[in-house]
Amino acid sequence: MSQFLFGVFPYIASVLAVVITIYEYRRNSFHFSSISSQFLEGRKLFWGSIPWHYGVLTVLLGHLLAFLFPSAYIAFAKVPMRLLILEVISLVCGFMAFLGLVMLFKRRMLDSRINIITTNFDISLLLLLLIQVASGVGVALFYRWGSSWYASAVVPYLRSLWVLDPEISYIANMPFVVKLHVFNSFLIVAIIPFTRLMHFLVAPVHYFWRPYQIVIWNWSRRKIRKADQQ
Ligand code: HEM
Fold first, then answer.
1. Alpha-carbon gap, residue 193 to 2, rounded angstroms
2. Does the pLDDT of residue 27 top 90, yes or no?
3. pLDDT band at residue 228 under the 50/70/90 scheme
4. In whole angstroms, what is the distance from residue 157 CA to residue 165 CA?
5. Domain presence at residue 72
6. Residue 126 alpha carbon, nearest atom of ligand 1
7. Terminal CA-to-CA distance of the chain, rounded, Å?
8. Range of the domain at 135
9. Which of 31, 34, 106, 109 to mutate to test the pocket of ligand 1 (most atoms within 8 A of CB)?
10. Which numbered atom of ligand 1 lies nearest the CA of 108?
11. Does a structural domain hold residue 214?
């Protein structure tokens, strides 16, 4: 079972993600969008989306850096105070991401206007992301110094996948919550092309150097939204 979940499924997920993403991009590149719902509801979106994105992008950056430079990461975190600072920053960002995600989930379920345009894929994606963040925060809370053994045990496993020689012994005996975190991440990769998650593949980085664009509202947004809800 472990062999399939951690040695085979990651490849199925990656192939699905790459092939269907390319197919979808060629077929209908409009799908490559977060399909914003801001025009329908803005306040809850703000309180959900901002902490979610800042939290998750910081945590992902930490994962990526430790994946790319594991030895430098381990050497850096050898000083207890540095390790503590890294752990605290990750935990705070994990909590931010979790609370933002709960808000986004509530918004999709309970706001009548948003609920109408919400698909089963939207709900499945948010649920998988909730499991991912909750299990990550769980590891941080219940297993000490996860950032260090991520670099020394999980990274070698991920690298072994990358070189097509899966070495699952690295994680076979890890606690359940760690395995859940790892496996669920592959599930999320697998559903990328079916969901609005594709938007992060086309992050609008060119916004940093394009000329300013000024958006002017000719009416009161609050009034319009309230009128629609009556
Ligand atoms: C690369 C940088 C990213 C940018 C610029 C970005 C931007 C956005 C934008 C503009 C929205 C739409 C908000 C709206 O409805 O108006 C959105 C929604 C969303 N983003 Fe991102 N995003 C990024 C990365 C990510 C990542 C890495 C994840 C997940 C791991 C993610 C997950 C989501 C989800 C789940 C939603 C939908 C929320 C909802 O409507 O319920 N985003 N993002």
1. 25
2. no
3. low
4. 9
5. yes
6. 35
7. 54
8. 2-204
9. 34
10. 41
11. no
Q: Assess contact for 14 and 185: CB atoms under 8 A.
A: no
Q: Confirm whether 135 is domain-assigned.
A: yes
- Answer yes or no: is 11 within a domain: yes
pLDDT in tens, 78-136: 899 999 999 999 999 999 999 999 999 999 999 999 999 999 999 999 999 999 999 99
Which of 32-36, 99-103, 185-189, 203-207 is the least confident region? Answer: 32-36
C-alpha span between 226 and 93 (Å, rounded): 33
CA distance 46 to 100: 9
d(CA 195, CA 117): 13
Higher pLDDT, 217 or 95: 95
Average pLDDT of the chain, as a whole number: 90
Q: What is the Å distance from ligand 1's center to 179 Cα?
A: 25
Number of neighbours of residue 27 by Cβ within 10 angstroms:
10
> In total, how many domains does the chain have?
1
Write down the pTM of the prediction. Answer: 0.88
Check if the beta carbon of residue 202 is closer than 8 Å to that of residue 24.
no
Rounded to whole angstroms, the Cα distance separating 15 from 9 reads 10
| Pocket around ligand 1 at a 6 A CB cut-off | 34, 36-38, 45, 49, 53, 56, 60, 104, 108, 125, 129, 196-197, 199-200, 203
Residue 187's Cβ-side half-sphere holds a number of Cα atoms within 13 Å equal to 17
Question: Residue whose CA is closest, atom 42 of ligand 1?
Answer: 200
Burial class (CB in 10 A: 0-12, 13-18, 19+), 219: exposed
